[in-house]
Amino acid sequence: MLVNGSPHKAGCTNRALEEVARTLEENGVEAEIFWIGPKPVGGCVACGGCGTKGACVFDDAVNEFRAKAAEADGFIFGAPVHYAHAAGSLLAFMDRLFYSNGRAGQPNVFRFKPAAAVTSARRGGTTAALDDIQKFFTISQMPIVSSRYWNNVHGNTAEQVEQDAEGLWTMRQLGRNMAWMLKCLEAGRAAGIELPEQEAGSQTNFIR
Question: Is the pTM of this model over 0.90?
Fold first, then answer.
């Protein structure tokens, strides 16, 4: 599953994701691009309702995507750069998506599934935006898939992204690397390799 976190359905971010998706398909991996839409996405309000409902209380694209994510084997989240960080709509989407995931006895649909981030910018801020997105993966025990360079493209329109030969090259390598990782995981499952044991720990709060 690839997520287009841009308000523009056919913009720069989508063009980058299309290059990854096409490469995945060429390597025998089914790919679907999910667009979060053009409407503003509200962030988590810390109501705790997902702990009872098993889903975010705001029933929008977040819950729609999570239902699809349960059947997916890997993820690529893409966003444009706004003021040198990932677009707020995608970060709000991911805040609610990852926080509500696995609540109220619902299955965790992200743990141990590989993930990658993709960003697009006219000029600067792409690596800071990549860091924004990748933090969701590291706290969720998701292996991060890399490419041959940082996963970004440059341009102000999808047509300009077409001129970013190195950026599209990086997207294609990301697609090949993700396909390889998915096949390795599938081979491991077939060989009977168990998932890592989960230790029952506790949170440490420094101020009470």
Answer: yes
